[in-house]
Amino acid sequence: MSTDRIAQYVRPEIQALKAYQVGNADNLIKLDNMENPYDWEEPVKNGWLERVQSASLNRYPDPEASELQKQLRQVMSVPDEVDLLLGNGSDELIQIICMALAKPGATLLSVTPAFVMYKMLAIFTGMKYVGVDLNDDFSLNLELMLSEIEETQPAIVFLAYPNNPTGNLFNEQDVCKIIEASPGLVVIDEAYYAFADASFAKYLSRYENMIVMRTVSKMGLAGLRLGYMMGNPCWINEFNKVRMPFNINCLTQASVEYALENVEMFNKQTQQLCRNRDELYDAMQKMPAIQCYPTKTNFILFRTEVGQAARIFDGIKKAGVLIKNLSVNGGALTDCLRVTIGKEDQNAAFLSALQESL
Ligand SMILES: *Cc1c(COP(=O)(O)O)cnc(C)c1O
User: Fold this and answer.
1) How far is the CA of 159 from the centre of ligand 1 (A)?
2) What CA–CA distance (Å, rounded) separates 34 from 2?
3) In the list 40, 125, 152, 313, which could disulfide-bond 325, CB 3.0-4.6 Å?
């Protein structure tokens, strides 16, 4: 096909992009994408199969996913006074928020480095993107944040709490000051809520310009694609207009409902992963050739010696373990690699692969 039409009609900012890619993990221990490695207990799995057997695939799903919303409220400590909106992954929630607020010339502000989809969705929806550098230790540069907010008057501020790809929790008071200084909406993205032991949900009644977003992906249901946001009913009402009518399919609704009835199993897995994380972190901290950043997530970001990241990444891969090379992103992530926390034996395999590769 002639590429002329592409060149003429596809928006130039889209032509300039590359599609999202994930590494090929065939025959490798997969520690690259913040997935929960643990299997379901046999009786729980059987109960799930029974549950999905009765799903009506010929019918459209419940457009509001009311049963699932009820369950989420109970299990995820959703404050009574806020409304919920569900998305096909929290990625879709980011898209919904951007579509609703992307007036011509509007700005989306986040930090650098941040979750890459914030910038992507800003581009897709025609918003200006501003990324404010974090400090060298990846804490918030509050002064710089406040002056950039003053300068750019962003319609949306996105902050992941804890942050991906750095893993740390920002200072709570700093985040409050950012919310107070923001003219528009501030979205607190709590994708790692299960591992963090911290949340801004308690501030939902204090700040009418804040919403909190979460996902069930990182707790072990990434394949189902479900995210949820909590916020003042006035915001949720607007976002609900932009949402596709049947965005949560019936298998996801039935499966997440069932999983939440069995949330104890997931809580146990999460607690185990936190113990595994702390053990792996301690072991990595004893290695003088790398520097580990503190983490409240299910991954560890670490810095290699200058210019060594690609070689070490390849060495670990040759030893059968796939992690993520973030050094290719450049900037503050140059020389950085990221490992997702796995089962004990997977982490041990990673540790010895790392040791051999340094
Ligand atoms: C993984 C992640 C998401 C996306 O989660 P999905 O619900 O799987 O789309 C959003 N924000 C952050 C910070 C993440 O790390």
Assistant:
1) 12
2) 40
3) 313
